[in-house]
């Protein structure tokens, strides 16, 4: 049997297959972070296409935590209704659904806000210089992640993902390139992981024990002085309140060019998986079913994310099942289009 179509359990969550749609910002909210028809159609289409786990795009825990003014938000109870619609429609087609809780930190480009960060260093000359967060402000952001998790639960999500990758706020604290603080939040690994630890601790107070939590990480920062996969292992092993799975990505911390190629992040996943003894979601330029199958069969990751290929082809899992000789139930409305064995 194709491993890509084997179910996978994390706590009480039973995924129907190993295909994950990673969070991908749609920058399509017309107003104040609310869900609209675009989001419903976009996510529902991938659920119809048999993606096992759909992780809804980076959703901001506070207005200042948006990348743009068109990002989705979860900073108010009013956001729950729209998010619940995404959950309900995707579940009705058999997918499991997660949401990425995010704070953009110094990479926020919301025009009427000054971004915040561990240290007042701009991402590039195109970005504003962020305000350095005080300890009170840090605690306030922790509370906002917790409130976001509470709302995600009310909306019915199966899993939450804490965005600690791509140079956004939590990643900025982890990285020596962006965190130059002299207090309890900077310097040593213990100090740099403090904020992520706090977020996980508080989120776990409101997120049920039997539901999983994912943390997305940039395992490689593509700078000699930045974090590398082995550093991430050391950082993550310091967490007291551990997540259930790591979603392994890379980059985005500094403005630099990355040499990308199919599978370029899989080696990072292997190091994180082995070093933390936790399951991983891995991917990056994965477009072919047999590439995903190889990653899983060789235990380089437990789940595979397929991002842009699912933007090109929302029914990718149906095609992958055909290629891997796996019998999958097609939506009955599309049965006449079923690929022949
Ligand atoms: C992304 N990515 C991304 N990552 C993340 O953690 N949160 C997000 O909201 C987004 N937003 C986003 C939007 C768009 C349009 C793209 C293309 C990408 C990164 C994404 O999840 C994934 O890691 C990369 O796209 C690499 O995987 P693929 O596309 O090569 O399979």
From TrEMBL:
Q: Give the superkingdom in one word.
A: Bacteria
Provide the NADH:flavin oxidoreductase/NADH oxidase N-terminal domain boundaries. 3-326
Mind listing the UniProt keywords for this protein, alphabetically? Answer: Flavoprotein, FMN, NADP, Oxidoreductase
Single Gene Ontology MF annotation: NADPH dehydrogenase activity
Please name the InterPro entries in this protein's record: Aldolase_TIM, OxRdtase_FMN_N, YqjM-like
| SUPFAM superfamilies cross-referenced by the UniProt entry | FMN-linked oxidoreductases
Q: Which cofactor does it need?
A: FMN
The protein's matches in Pfam families, at most eight in alphabetical order, are given as: Oxidored_FMN (PF00724)
Q: Which Gene3D superfamilies match?
A: Aldolase class I
Q: Sorted alphabetically, which NCBIfam families does this protein's record hold?
A: PRK13523.1
- What is the name attached to this protein's record? NADPH dehydrogenase
Q: What organism, scientifically named, is this protein from?
A: Thermohalobacter berrensis
């Amino acid at each position: 049997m194709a491993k890509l179509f084997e179910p996978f359990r994390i706590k009480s969550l039973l995924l129907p297959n190993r295909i994950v749609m990673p969070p991908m910002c749609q920058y399509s909210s017309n107003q104040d972070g609310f869900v609209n028809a675009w989001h419903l159609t976009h996510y529902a289409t991938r659920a119809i296409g048999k993606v096992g786990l759909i992780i809804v795009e980076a959703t901001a825990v506070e207005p200042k935590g948006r990348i743009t003014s068109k990002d989705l938000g979860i900073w108010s109870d009013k956001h729950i209704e729209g998010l619940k619609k995404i959950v309900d429609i995707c579940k009705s087609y058999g997918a499991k659904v997660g949401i990425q809780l995010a704070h953009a930190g110094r990479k926020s480009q919301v025009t009427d806000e000054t971004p915040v960060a561990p240290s007042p260093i701009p991402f590039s000359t195109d970005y504003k210089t962020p305000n350095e967060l005080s300890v009170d402000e840090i605690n306030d952001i922790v509370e906002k992640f917790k409130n976001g998790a509470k709302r995600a639960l009310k909306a019915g999500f199966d899993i939450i993902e804490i965005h600690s990758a791509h140079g956004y706020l939590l990643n900025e604290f982890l990285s020596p390139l962006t965190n130059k603080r002299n207090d309890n939040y900077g310097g040593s690994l213990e100090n740099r992981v403090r904020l992520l630890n706090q977020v996980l601790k508080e989120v776990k107070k409101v997120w049920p024990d039997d539901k999983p939590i994912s943390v997305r990480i940039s395992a490689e920062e593509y700078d000699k002085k930045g974090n590398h996969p082995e550093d991430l292992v050391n950082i993550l092993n310091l967490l007291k309140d551990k997540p259930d799975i790591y979603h392994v990505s890379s980059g985005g911390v500094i403005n630099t060019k990355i040499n990308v190629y199919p599978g370029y992040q899989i080696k990072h996943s292997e190091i994180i998986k082995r070093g933390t003894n936790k399951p991983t979601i891995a991917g990056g330029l994965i477009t072919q079913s047999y590439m995903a199958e190889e990653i899983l069969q060789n235990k380089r990751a437990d789940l595979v994310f397929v991002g842009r290929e699912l933007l090109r082809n929302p029914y990718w899992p149906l095609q992958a099942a055909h290629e891997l000789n796996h019998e999958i139930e097609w939506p009955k409305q599309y049965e006449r289009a079923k690929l022949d064995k």
